[in-house]
Design a protein that fits this description.
The chain has 104 residues and is mainly α. It has six helices and no strands.
Length: 104
């Protein structure tokens, strides 16, 4: 078994499982669209080994590589939508709107 970096180990098993699941789904989507590994790499402007690492769920693969793969496969590339806005930021906006609505 290959030695894990501290950063990878710090992800925890649940995150590692999710990355592997994401990689499998990307591979399945690529294959179902009959896109070869080489063609996918060319479209993404990366090396074939980089696509292989993405499809394996390697956490060291960059977010940019992931976004290019999702764009090619027609997936949701709006990753920010996966994270809820911090509650404090929502409150700040509500407060700002309420202050502008006050009529002095």
């Amino acid at each position: 078994m290959a030695k894990q970096s501290r950063a990878v180990a710090a992800l925890g098993i649940d995150a590692q499982i999710e990355l592997e699941r994401l990689g499998r789904r990307i591979r399945e989507a690529r294959k179902s669209r009959k896109i070869s590994l080489r063609s996918m790499a060319e479209r993404m402007m990366v090396s074939t080994p980089t696509v292989v690492e993405l499809e394996r769920g390697n956490p060291g693969t960059s977010i940019g590589v992931l976004l290019r793969a999702l764009a090619i496969l027609g997936g949701n590339w709006k990753l920010a939508s996966l994270v809820e806005e911090a509650p404090g930021r929502v409150q700040e906006r509500v407060t700002a709107v309420q202050l502008t609505d006050l009529d002095f």
